[in-house]
Amino acid sequence: MDRKLGAAGLVLFFTTATLAHEFWLQPSSFRVGVGAAVPVRLLVGAGFAGEAWPRPTRRTLRFVRLGPTPLDSTDLRPALRADSVAPAISCPTPGTHLVVLASAPSFLELPPDKFTAYLREGGLDAALLYRQQQGQTATKIGREAYRRCAKALVLATTGLRPQAAAADTAYRRVLGLPLELVAEQNPYYLRTGAALTVRVLRQGQPAAGVLVQVWDATPPIAKQPAGQQAPAFPAHFTTHSNRSGRVLLRLPGAGPYLVATTCIEPAPASLSARADWLSTWATLTFGGPAAATTGGGSRFTK
């Protein structure tokens, strides 16, 4: 691959439905008691429905719990070695805890026609154009390295109604991951229907024009009005980040929510023996306002 393509700043952001899958962290509950053991499933799938991520111990570079204050953290890799399907975490202090997993690159090859469809479906016009100009769309296998950057927000309480504290800042912590989603407000302390701003950051810098997908799994109301069709479940929406890398969404229910985005770029020289492209998949999962009682549709504003 011509490295000038990378030097020109080619970074393509995309999501696909049929040729790729999201990866996310799914606690058994997003609201837990202080000190309670909480299983966290590592899931891969589509439409906020997933299966266990295979061989996690070999793929995981970082798996950590970051507490409400900067000095509160736990390396979760021993828990992953003990249970690779649903490692248990414990939140020892009240407040919002951030669970983070980053993986090493894995490798995938697709036949030329499927890789071309993959790029076209994801709107990856520059990569598609590059392959067309090089005469690769019908002849060259798509070789891709991909990595995961998943985050989840878990609220730990003592059973009383939680009160926001100035020191409770883990939810907005920027970790400098290759690609990450960062909430700018704490979703657990918002009122129903309030706005939540999420930033898309690439290596800590705002990523503009990024396609972002959101799934809202707030349980639907038990009975729809006569003649009204039940909405899709979970609700699914797409939007794009603005020039500062932000998307604005409203939380109409208690969730949980899955926010996801992906980028693809030319593979670095260190991976070029096995891949021509490197994709990074980022997700953020969390619960919504505790007072919510009915479902509804999320709304986005740039």
Span between termini: 35 Å
How many structural domains in the coordinates? Answer: 1
Given as residue ranges, the uncertain stretches (5+ residues, pLDDT < 50) are 2-9, 14-19, 292-302
The SSE order reads HEEEEEHEEHEEEHHEEEEEEEEEE
Major β-sheet profile: 11 strands, mixed
Helix content: 10-25%
Please supply descriptive tags for the structure shown above.
302 residues, single chain, eleven-stranded mixed sheet, disordered C terminus, disordered N terminus, globular, 11% helix, mainly beta, five-stranded antiparallel sheet, 40% strand
Topology overview:
Layout: H1 3-7, E1 12-13, E2 22-27, E3 31-33, E4 37-46, E5 49-52, H2 56-59, E6 60-66, E7 73-75, H3 77-82, E8 88-90, E9 95-103, E10 106-110, H4 112-121, H5 125-133, E11 142-157, E12 180-183, E13 195-202, E14 205-206, E15 211-216, E16 235-240, E17 246-250, E18 257-266, E19 277-286, E20 300-301
Parallel strand pairs: 3-11, 11-19
Antiparallel strand pairs: 1-18, 2-4, 4-5, 4-8, 6-7, 6-9, 9-11, 10-11, 12-13, 13-14, 13-17, 15-16, 15-18, 17-20, 18-19
